[in-house]
Amino acid sequence: MAYTTLILADPAPPLLPLPHPLPLTRAGLSGFPSPAQDYDGRTLDLNERLVKRPSATFFMTVTGDSMGPLGIHDGDLLLVDRSITPRPGHILIALVDGEITVKRYQMIKQRPYLCSGNPEYAPIPIADLDCQVWGVVRSVIHEYPV
Questions:
Q1: How many distinct structural domains can be found in the chain?
Q2: What are the residues whose beta carbons fall under 8 Å from the beta carbon of 52, sequence distance 6 or more?
């Protein structure tokens, strides 16, 4: 999975509180919420919720199908934090032998690998390669066609 754009987060993002009326929304609703809940004054600022360290955060749009089974699809926007220390299980943005990639960091037989979600792609053993971790993916923004 390769990147198409790299956008740095604003170090001082402006506040943008948007209406956030329901404290909990279930995927399978058994009823409808009260219309009065639409106006209870709660807000949500995605900068505050998702961007924990603005000076260490960047956004990236991805292409490819290697991470689809893990919920990262072609065209998705990733929020990446450079200040997080990578651990096995994290999804990483890494520069491997000069190519930027999005993969899950895993230990296999005590050796570090970058692995795709798609089984058609072999794990990449990084111990013997030139690998530079750019950051850990904190969030995936997936837009549905309308």
A1: 1
A2: 81, 138
Catalytic residue numbers, as ranges: 66, 103
Q: How does pLDDT run across 12-21, given as a tens digit for each residue?
A: 667 666 665 5
Q: Residue 122, Cβ neighbours under 10 Å: how many?
A: 9
Asked whether the whole model's pTM tops 0.85, one would answer no
Residue for token digits 């506040």?
15
DSSP-assigned letter for residue 129: S
What pairs with residue 41 in β-bridges?
A: none
Residue 105 lies in a domain: yes
Q: How many CA atoms lie within 13 A of 86 on its CB side?
A: 23
Domain that holds residue 114: 57-141
Q: Looking at residue 109, which CATH number applies to its domain? A: 2.10.109.10
* Distance separating alpha carbons of residues 97 and 56, to the nearest angstrom: 23
What is the rounded distance in angstroms from the CA atom of residue 93 to the CA atom of residue 75? 15
Q: What is the pLDDT of residues 45-104, one digit of tens each?
A: 888 888 888 888 999 999 899 999 999 999 999 999 999 999 999 999 999 988 899 999
